[in-house]
Queue: 2 jobs
Job 1
Amino acid sequence: MTFPKFPIIAKTISGLEDVLVKDLESLGAVDLLKLNRAVSFTGDQPLLYRVNYCCRTALRILKPLFHFEILEQKDLYDRLYEYPWENFIDPEKTISIDAVISYTVFTNSQFVAQKSKDAIVDRLRDKLGKRPSVDLDDPDLRINVHLFKDLCTVSLDSSGQSLHRRGYRKNTGPAPINEVLAAGLVMLSGWDITTPLLDPMCGSGTLLIEAAMIAKNIPAGYFRDSYGFMKWNDFDSGLWERVRAESLARVSTLNLHLFGSDRSGRAIEAAGINMQHAGFQNDITLNEVSFEESVPPAEKGFIICNPPYDERIKLDDAVAFYKMIGDTLKRKYSGFQAWFISSDLESLKFIGLRPSRRIVVFNGPLECRFVKFEVFTGKKARG
Ligand SMILES: C[S@@+](CC[C@H](N)C(=O)[O-])C[C@H]1O[C@@H](n2cnc3c(N)ncnc32)[C@H](O)[C@@H]1O
């Protein structure tokens, strides 16, 4: 059976656009175009379902409905009101509007969301005599209004809740990393899935769980049961079951060598619960120990680590802390490739090793560097 093609947009975190292109390509997307914090591509209904289920580095998958030009503020309401919303919004259902704006006649995205909602609700009330209510937390239909300069794109959000909500994390520590960012970092690092991988400040274990899911080809949405598209009028449950079954048929039973440690007993307890819940208790070994006291779990390996940045987790002495990271790497981890993400660019320098890669990526509002150190013995270890 062939399905009609349509444009699709995957939204992501700033800095993950390149890995998102690869991620989407591997799932069958074509005509890929890298944008700012997004990638556009062409696909059909099976692909829309598949990318929601399997793509690790997208936050949301949008299906654009129409575009228009905005020359003055009233165009937003007028053009949204003209669209035949009554053809696919049941007024008994709930809606919510997400608005994103840049370089436009509007300065406030909340105002854009409000105006858009008014236009849609007024149209439905005038045409059907009833209006849908708004539910910001769990609406039946999420509509995305994106304004860039004078171009407005209105899309349906096929994901519903953000795709970073994978559903495996039952317990977190004080500064858990976003699951989409964690997957993106593992993919950016070039980890080859068989080399031993250590996160020596693993907190609730997100980086290791994402790495395990990547290595075993477990769909990103394996632990999640709902997506926005399931509430659409055209939802095809048979097709969804087929897409799911095809994706699950690719899961591998590879044995993994993943290691997590943290100096906090509570973090290790949380990581243990999450790993148990995700079914990785035989793939990931956890240890309550500080990085400085740690013993490398293998002669050679990979480290991917999200240490405190002195932001959400405060450090007594950030310079001394990052110096300790560098000293520990040099003392104990020769033969390892070590990746660290941090927004504390000054303190990062005190690791004292010369980074061989440096990638700009955002963790929430924080501009970070994801840096790679090749730890050698002897002369090369010096920065
Ligand atoms: C930003 S959090 C990591 C969050 C983790 N990526 C997650 O998703 O939950 C930093 C972690 O570093 C740990 N930590 C701080 N200093 C440490 C040290 N010297 N050795 C080992 N772990 C340390 C903290 O206990 C905390 O769990």
Job 2
Amino acid sequence: MQLNESPNVVVIGGGPAGATVSTLIAQQGYRVELFERDRFPRYHIGESLIPETYWVLKRLNMLEKMKASPFIHKYSVQFVNASGKQSAPFYFHDNKPHECSQTWQVQRSEFDVMMLQNAAEHGVGVHEGVRVLDVLFEGDRATGVQIVDEEGTTREIRADVVVDASGQSSMLINRFKLRVPDPELNKGAIWAYHKGGYRDNGKNEGATIVLSLQDKQGWFWYIPLHDDIVSVGVVADFDYLFKGRESHEATYAAEMEKCPAVKERIAAATRVSPVKATKDYTYRASQAAGEGWVLVGDAFGFLDPLYSSGVLLALKSGQLAADAIVEGLRKGDTSQAQLGNWEAGYVEGMNRMRRLVCEYYDGFSFGQFIRRFPEHRGGITDLLIGDLFKPELDQVFADIDSLKAEQAAS
Ligand SMILES: Cc1cc2nc3c(=O)[nH]c(=O)nc-3n(C[C@H](O)[C@H](O)[C@H](O)COP(=O)(O)OP(=O)(O)OC[C@H]3O[C@@H](n4cnc5c(N)ncnc54)[C@H](O)[C@@H]3O)c2cc1C
């Protein structure tokens, strides 16, 4: 394995968060080595992007590659309620008439390869098939990583900063017991891929559709991908989905019976994958950085996939962490305060998305809300596109509270 023996930064994991943070640091002339345990392309769930990824993709020089890709264009999100009634699409362009309002539905195996190749093109030392066994510390300061390659050879690599982008493996969360679970969002998911499912025409072809089960116990995602594939999955409380059930396959079929709008859409389609399942608990680390180390993407926190925010959050935290690291390297300061200087604002944004998720599960009617407060249509769309990091959006939630109070009083 050819690598720089004294990089400024080592990155654990080559998913979207790891690829982003490493590319943006290398762009500034610093030496970055990235270790990914798998060989790409590898399968990953998480296919629907949201528009605010545009700005990070732009900084990564990924936009032209995305435009030239076969990925389906996504212009909107649509909701189907428990009685099968379909909402008007939330067209992102109505809110922001800019090309950033068109985003993509990606096959993650392909997207993640593109991101990692792009990192290598920007000078990142990318090493696939290399697992990080441990983060090395001197006192409470991270000083590097111990790695093992596919031949079983182990080595220690020293660096000024260690970035944990290991996804839900969450190396440092586990080591320091930083995981803060979110008991309100203890969910699971079961999904599969189908070829030949129904898709709308024109601008609606690539819409993500979120469809409630008839008994409101959960919801289905319907995500059209290229090659005539649709990703179709159900999310519900973990116990409901997994306890006392016969098999994931039987549960998937049974839940689909409770969502005729999905069943109809794939009636003429063929399932082309096994049924897959995961627990999909929301969690967050109690801190995003320490002395010489930073967490990004799912290695920092994971939020319920209802509004497809995972890749955006991976890209955004990757970008914010990269800026903090570059500034820190310039100043010779890789303290917790410097490396985590983005945490508070980022967590506020994540909390806004979380609140929107919880309102959906509480049965809150966005249609009713927008009829009562039409001035918030833009704010709701901002939240849905991932433009989360601005305090003025808190007025939306203040008015959701006032509508709930009015409803409780009447
Ligand atoms: C059911 C479900 C549906 C979802 N739907 C969506 C969606 O529609 N849209 C969306 O944006 N997001 C979605 N997500 C979320 C999305 O999948 C994640 O948020 C996103 O992949 C996070 O990117 P990441 O780079 O942080 O982690 P990952 O993409 O998981 O990448 C982490 C990488 O680290 C590597 N790694 C781990 N440990 C080590 C180690 N020790 N050494 C070296 N390498 C290591 C792994 O192999 C992996 O490649 C969904 C998630 C779930 C569970």
